[in-house]
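Weekly modeling sync, notes
Attendees: S.R. (lead), two postdocs, one rotation student

Agenda item 3: backlog of single-chain predictions. S.R. asked that every request posted to the team notebook include the full sequence so nobody has to chase files. The rotation student volunteered to paste the first one in as an example of the format we agreed on. Action items at the bottom.

Example entry:
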Amino acid sequence: MQGLGFAYAMAPLAAERGERVQPETSALLARHLQRFNTHPYLAAPLIGSVTRLESENRSSEVNDLKNALMGPYAAIGDSFFWSSLRPLSGIAAVCIAFKGILLAPLLFLVLYTPAHLWVRIRGFITGWQQGKNGIEFIRRLDLPEKSRWTRWCSTVLLGIGAYLASTAEQIHTLFQPFILGQVGGLLVILASFLAVRKGLSPLTILYGSVLFFAVVLVMQ
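Predicted structure, as returned to the notebook:
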């Protein structure tokens, strides 16, 4: 799946060895063409660690490291970046879009981009410097705990977005007049809170809210 990309990342190291050790170079690339699948952002720290091992001729440890980490890294990365940070950034952008601010897409990038760039760049450097111990960089980030807090922030922002949607002057729904609109927004906040308590992801809540308001608009 991502084996071709991993081998491509190893190509500069293979090129440094040159044709004088052609069999070893071919073996290095073939070794990394095998099946590999993890979260794309957390692949960078692993590439750094593997590059260090390969440069120290510790190729016997490479496959074990990749197989041991790609599954956990995939779960951690999906949970934080796809299921937590991306919805949070999108909901925040939508909230200011309701206020007519045209820079809403820029807010999404400002909230989302620094985190994954830091993990990819700093993670690769740390992996290269520390080899197998580069895993400590990801452990110290404690992304599962950050995912939990990010989901709660997403829920709060989703409630704010519902309130802004219900009070926007250009939107006339079944929740009008104004007081009923505020009550509707409050109900959405409470429903979102209960949904998170039940284990429903903020992304599912976001799509469900969009579908609900679309139905309301069609019924008016």
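Discussion: group reviewed the output briefly. The radius of gyration is 23 Å.
Action items: rotation student to repeat for the remaining queue; S.R. to check formatting next week.
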